[in-house]
C-alpha cells in the first residue's frame, strides 16, 4: 500500500515539472499566428509557472505574445540558430536583429546561445545584438 | 532627307539584328557547357541548348539573354548549390529542366533564383527536386508562366517553397503546377501580384501563403490536398475569385485561413471537404459573397475579433457545422444566404424565408469551448438541445442571424474541380 502511495506521489511530481517540450516541426501550430511551425532554426516556447506550454514559430511571435498576454513565466525557450532544433534558455540568449535574417514572421530575429556566437554570426547577419530585456522592450 | 533617315533606320536595325547572335550548346558542339556560353554571350543574344544533361553550379546569368532549351535539356545542379542565378534585367528562360539543388539551412538554395532583376520571364520550365523552386527577391514585373515544379521533400522541415517572392512588385504567376514543396506559392512583402489558373497540390504546409503582402489578386486557382490549406495573413486589399479549395483534412487544416486581413473580397469560390473551410481571425471589412461551402467539418469559423465582415448570397450545404464563433460579441453581417439547415417557411412565396435563421447552433458553441463533446455528435440529446435553444436562445449569440435566408440554393459555376 505504502509503495503504491509512493508511486502515485512520484508520478504527480513528474507531471508537474515545467521542463522543455520538444517542438514537433510540421505538426505544431504557433500560438499567436496559427501557422504550422516549420523552420527549425526559429521555433520558440513559453512555459507558464503552472506548466502550460505554448509554442511559437519565431522569436517575434513569442515576444508579441509575451507583451500582449503577459503570462506568468515558468521559463522561456528559444532555438539556437547555430544548432537547429535545439532549445536554449531565452532569458540568457542573445538575439541578432538584422535585415539579412529572414525569420518566419518578418521580425528579422535569430537567437544565439552566447555573446561570442552572436558576435561571430553578426559578420554574416550585420545588425544589432539584443538581450532578452532589450527584445521584449521592442 | 526623310528617305535618307529611313535608310539609316534600316541600316542600323540590320546591324542590331546581325549582332543578336545565337549560341548553340550541345555535347558535340564547339561550346559544350553553359558556363562558356554565358561568358561568350552579349546582351540580346540567344543561347540554344540541345537535348542532354549539363552540370551547373550556381550559374549566374548577368546579361540580358534568352536561354532556350530544345526539348527540355536537363540542367543538373548535383546537390552542390543553387541552379541558375539571374541578376540581369530582361532575361528569358524557356523550356529547360532544372534538377537537384542543394538543401539545407545555410541559405535558400533554389532551382532558379532571381535576385534584383526586373522584367524576367520564366516559362515552360520544369523544376524537379529543388529545395526552393523559383525564388524571386527584390525583382519586379516578372512573369512566371506554365511551369511545373515538383519537390521531393524528404520531411517537412527540410523543404522549401515552390514559388517564393520576397520584396517584389507586379509579378504575374500564371498556369503553374506546384507540388511536393513546403508552401506552393509564398508571397512575403510582395505587392500588386497576380496569381491565376495555378494548381497547387499536395504541398506540405500551405498551397498558397501571403504574409505582409497588400493589393494582390488571385483567381481560378485550385488548391487541394495541401497540409493545412491556404493562409492569407497580415495583408489588406486581397481579391480572391473563383478558386477551388478541396480536401484539406487534419486537426488544424483549413480551406483558407484569414488572419488580420482588411478590406478584401472573397467571391465565387468553392470550399468542399475541408476540416475548416474558412477561418477568420482579426479580420475586418472583408466581403464574402457568392461562395459555396459543401461537405466541410466547419464551413465558417468566425472569431469574435472580427468586425464588419459581410456574408452575402453564399451556399451552405451539408456541412457538419455551418458557423461557429467563440464569444457573444458579434459585429458581422449575414444576408440572403442559402442554409440547408434552415427549417423556416415562405408563405408570401418571395423565395426568402419569413423567419430569420440562426446559423450558430448550441452544440457548436459547446464544441468550441469543450472540444471533447464532439463525442456526442448526432446523438438524440444534441438534437434536443439544439431545438430547445433555437426556440429559446440563451447561450448562442443572439445577433448572429440571417434575417433573409434563401429558400433555394444558388447555382454557381464551381471552379475547376
Distance between the termini of chain B: 63 Å
Distance between the terminal alpha carbons of chain A, to the nearest Å? 56 Å
In terms of structural class, how would the helical and strand content of chain A be classed?
alpha+beta
Fraction in beta strands of chain B: 35-45%
Instruction: Give the CATH class of the largest domain in chain B.
Output: Mainly Beta
Shape of chain A: globular
Query: Order of strands in the sheet with the most strands of chain A?
Result: 2-1-3-4
The radius of gyration of chain B is 26 Å
CATH superfamily of the largest domain in chain B: Single-stranded right-handed beta-helix, Pectin lyase-like
Which sequence of SSEs, written as H and E, runs from N to C of chain A? HEEHEEEEHEH
Biggest contact: A-B, 16 and 21 residues
Rg of chain A, please? 17 Å
- Summed up, the domain count of chain A is 1
Q: Which shape of chain B, going by the Cα principal axes?
A: elongated
Main sheet record of chain B: 25 strands, parallel
Overall mean pLDDT of chain B = 90
List segments of chain A where confidence is low: pLDDT < 50 over at least 5 consecutive residues: none
Amino acid at each position: 500500500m505504502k509503495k503504491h502511495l509512493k508511486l502515485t506521489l512520484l508520478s504527480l511530481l513528474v507531471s508537474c515539472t515545467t521542463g522543455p517540450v520538444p517542438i514537433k516541426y510540421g505538426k505544431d501550430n504557433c500560438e499567436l499566428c496559427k501557422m504550422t511551425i516549420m523552420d527549425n532554426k526559429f521555433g520558440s516556447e513559453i512555459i507558464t509557472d503552472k506548466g502550460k506550454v505554448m509554442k511559437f514559430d519565431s522569436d517575434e511571435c513569442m515576444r508579441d505574445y509575451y507583451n500582449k498576454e503577459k503570462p506568468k513565466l515558468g521559463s522561456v525557450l528559444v532555438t539556437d540558430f547555430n544548432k537547429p532544433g535545439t532549445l536554449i534558455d531565452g532569458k540568457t540568449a542573445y538575439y541578432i536583429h538584422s535585415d539579412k535574417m529572414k525569420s518566419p514572421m518578418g521580425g528579422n530575429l535569430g537567437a544565439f546561445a552566447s555573446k561570442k556566437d552572436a558576435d561571430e554570426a553578426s559578420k554574416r547577419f550585420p545588425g544589432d545584438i539584443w538581450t532578452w530585456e532589450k527584445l521584449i522592450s521592442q | 532627307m526623310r528617305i535618307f533617315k529611313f535608310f539609316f533606320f534600316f541600316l542600323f536595325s540590320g546591324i542590331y539584328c546581325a549582332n543578336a547572335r545565337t549560341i548553340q550548346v550541345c555535347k558535340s558542339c564547339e561550346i559544350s557547357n553553359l558556363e562558356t556560353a554565358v561568358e561568350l554571350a552579349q546582351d540580346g543574344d540567344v543561347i540554344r541548348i540541345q537535348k542532354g544533361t549539363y552540370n551547373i553550379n550556381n550559374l549566374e546569368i548577368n546579361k540580358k539573354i534568352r536561354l532556350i532549351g530544345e526539348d527540355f535539356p536537363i540542367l543538373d545542379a548535383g546537390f552542390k548549390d543553387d541552379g541558375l542565378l539571374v541578376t540581369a534585367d530582361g532575361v528569358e528562360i524557356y523550356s529547360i529542366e532544372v534538377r537537384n539543388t542543394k538543401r539545407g539551412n545555410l541559405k535558400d538554395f533554389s532551382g532558379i533564383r532571381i535576385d534584383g532583376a526586373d522584367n524576367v520571364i520564366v516559362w515552360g520550365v520544369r523544376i524537379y527536386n529543388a529545395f526552393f523552386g523559383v525564388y524571386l527577391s527584390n525583382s519586379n514585373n516578372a512573369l512566371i508562366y506554365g511551369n511545373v515544379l515538383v519537390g521531393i521533400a524528404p520531411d517537412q522541415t527540410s523543404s522549401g517553397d515552390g514559388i517564393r517572392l520576397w520584396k517584389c512588385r507586379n509579378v504575374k504567376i500564371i498556369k503553374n503546377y506546384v507540388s511536393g514543396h513546403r508552401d506552393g506559392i509564398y508571397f512575403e512583402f510582395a505587392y500588386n501580384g497576380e496569381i491565376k489558373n495555378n494548381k497547387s497540390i499536395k504541398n506540405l504546409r500551405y498551397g498558397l501563403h501571403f504574409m505582409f503582402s497588400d493589393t494582390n489578386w488571385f483567381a481560378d486557382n485550385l488548391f487541394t490536398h495541401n497540409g493545412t490549406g491556404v493562409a492569407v495573413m497580415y495583408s489588406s486589399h486581397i481579391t480572391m475569385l473563383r478558386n477551388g479549395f478541396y480536401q484539406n483534412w487534419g486537426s488544424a487544416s483549413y480551406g483558407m485561413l484569414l488572419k488580420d486581413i482588411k478590406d478584401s473580397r472573397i467571391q465565387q469560390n468553392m470550399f468542399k471537404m475541408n476540416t475548416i473551410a474558412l477561418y477568420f481571425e482579426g479580420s475586418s471589412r472583408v466581403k464574402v459573397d457568392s461562395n459555396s461551402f459543401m461537405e466541410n467539418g466547419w464551413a465558417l469559423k468566425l472569431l469574435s475579433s472580427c468586425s464588419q465582415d459581410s456574408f452575402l448570397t453564399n451556399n451552405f450545404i451539408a456541412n457538419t457545422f455551418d458557423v461557429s464563433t467563440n464569444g457573444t460579441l458579434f459585429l458581422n453581417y449575414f444576408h440572403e444566404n442559402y442554409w440547408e439547415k434552415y427549417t423556416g417557411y415562405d408563405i408570401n412565396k418571395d423565395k426568402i424565408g419569413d423567419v430569420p435563421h440562426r446559423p450558430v447552433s448550441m452544440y457548436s458553441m459547446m464544441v468550441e469551448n469543450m472540444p471533447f463533446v464532439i463525442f456526442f455528435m448526432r446523438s438524440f440529446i444534441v438534437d434536443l438541445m439544439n431545438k430547445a435553444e433555437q426556440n429559446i436562445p440563451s447561450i448562442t449569440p443572439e445577433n448572429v442571424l440571417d434575417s433573409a435566408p434563401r429558400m433555394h440554393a444558388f447555382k454557381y459555376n464551381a471552379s475547376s474541380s
